[in-house]
Structures are given as structure tokens and as C-alpha cells.
Amino acid sequence: MTTLPARAERRCHNAVNPLHSCIFFSPDLGAEMGRIGIEDPSAAYFATRAAAFGPVGAGAVTATFHNFNPELVARHVPAVWKTASPDTVLAARLRAADTTLRRLLGEEAVASDAMAEAARLALRATEACTPHARPLYAAHADLPVPEEPHLAFWHAATLLREHRGDAHLAALLAADLDPLESLVSHTATGKGMAIRWILSSRGWRRADWEAACERLRERGLLEAGEQPVLTEAGTALRAEIEEATDRMDVAPYAHLGADGVERLTELARGFLRTATAAGAFPASATGRG
Fold first, then answer.
1. Are 125 and 159 in contact (CB under 8 A)?
2. InterPro entries in the record, alphabetically (predicted)?
């Protein structure tokens, strides 16, 4: 296996992943889902991410999405499949990805040699992804690769995201963190989403959040106080989780090689800067409040 510079796979993921996830903040996704009859934002999220499984029930979504309140999931799944089939949802999602990337990056970037190169590199990395114990990755890996380079890149980014995400859930389970404890401890690193946004989008109540904070304090992972702040032990645990995730996710990047990883990271960062400047991510989703 190719030896990579320290944390090269994490840096590449951090550049590539937002170019997949920006679709979930995009008004284009809401518009496309509305056209097929799915207007509730939570229903749209569950449907677009779970459609690769086929018409699954709430249990599969709760298990694989991990940090959502099961009550919120059950409110929308499997009922959403009565509104639109998984194939209809997948087609709408791809149209939204197309519109979103064209709007955020511009037509010149979408048609550029750099985009075609990024797609080739990202797809090459996915050649070494493995489906074992990675349900979200495996389901998406069965989908066809779009022909247009920017959509092929988005597809590859989706595969790389879910491959790492499935591994990350295994690391969280090994660390004995439940869904809300995972969210609280991530927020306490200073890199997580805004608390209000987490509660509204994940379906948890403030009392649930506070109870999770108290459990982490009892384990010595969180300081006392209104805002979640990690203790030394908590900081070490979160670092261990990220390192474990890196180990389980290194294969696609080792397959790409150090030079390929560096180039893909460079290209993705350039696209990400453009997308961020164009308003890809709402300010309300970030921060500590």
C-alpha cells in the first residue's frame, strides 16, 4: 500500500466532501423535490440520501444515518416512497446536483479541463473502496456513473463521502458514543454545526441535548458549563475517533497515490472556495449557538 503524508486522506476528504454535501443546502434540491411532491425538508433529505437503498423503512435509515431522532425518521419513512419512488428521487437529486454545481461554480468551471481531471482522479480513488460493512457506500456504488464530468465528480465525491462516513460510524460505536453524544462531542471540538441547526435538522429536543451533555460530563469528556467544551480526555477521544476513521478510509487514497491525492485536494479546494464564496453553505448552519 502506498504511504501517504500524514492525514493526507483526511485533508482530501475535507476538500471533496463539501462539494457533495452542498446539495443538501441548495434551493435547487428543494425545487426538484417539490416538483415530485416532496416538500418537507426532512423528508427530502431522507429520501435523497436513502433512495439508493430502494424503498426501505425507518429502521434502515435510522441505522445508517445514525444521528437523527428515530421519531423524525419514522415521521417520513417509509411514507415518502408513496409520494415518489426511489428512482424518481434519484433522478431529481442528479438534476439538483447539476443545477447546483453550475450555479455555484459557473459554466466555465463545470466545462473545464480541471473538472474533468478532478472527476478522473476521484473516480480512480473509488476503485479501492470496499462495500463490506459500509451500507451507504455499497448502495451508492451500485448506481451508474454520470457521463458529464461535473456530475461524475459529484458521484465520486458521494462514494468517497459515504465510504468514510460508514467507517466513521464504526469508530463512534467503538468509542461508545450514542448519536447525540457524537453530535455534542463534535460540536465541542469547535468544528461542528450550530446547536440550534443540529436540533432542528436532526429532530432532537434541547432536553435531549442537555441529557447527552450530562452523560459526557459523567464520563469526564465534557467540561461543566453552558457551552460544550471538551476536557483533555474528550479531546483525546475525538482525536482517536478521527485517527481510526482515517485508518479505515485510507485505501482509496493510497490507491490514488500521494501525487494524485495532492492534486485532487488542490482541485477540490479550488472548486470549494468558489462554491463557498457563492453562498453554498448558510451561515445559520455554523457556529456554537
1. no
2. HTH_67
Q: Which residues pair with 286 in a beta bridge?
A: 193
The Cα 263–Cα 267 span in angstroms is 6
Task: Return the pLDDT at 288.
Answer: 47
Residue 192: predicted pLDDT: 81
Query: Which positions ≥6 away from 161 have C-beta within 8 Å?
Result: 13, 16, 17, 20, 21
CB 7 within 8 A of CB 269: no
Q: Are 163 and 169 in contact (CB under 8 A)?
A: no
User: What residues are paired with 230 via a beta bridge?
Assistant: 222
Q: Which residues of the chain have pLDDT under 50?
A: 288-289
Q: Residue 25 and residue 140: Cα distance in Å, rounded?
A: 20
Which amino acid, one-letter code, is at 69? N
The alpha carbon of residue 266 and the mean position of all alpha carbons in its chain are separated, in whole angstroms, by: 20
Task: Specify the amino acid at residue 250.
Answer: V
pLDDT tens by residue, 165-222: 999 999 999 999 999 999 999 999 998 888 999 999 999 999 999 999 999 999 999 9
CA 232 to chain CA mean position, Å: 27
pTM equals 0.95
220-226: long-range contacts at Cβ-Cβ below 8 A with a sequence spacing of 24 or more? 221/185, 222/184, 222/185, 222/188
pLDDT for the residue 225:
85
Q: Which of 82, 45, 77, 38 is nearest to 58 (CA)?
A: 77
In the chain, the amino acid numbered 108 is E
Could you state, in order of their start, the residue ranges of all structural domains in the chain? 8-174+241-281
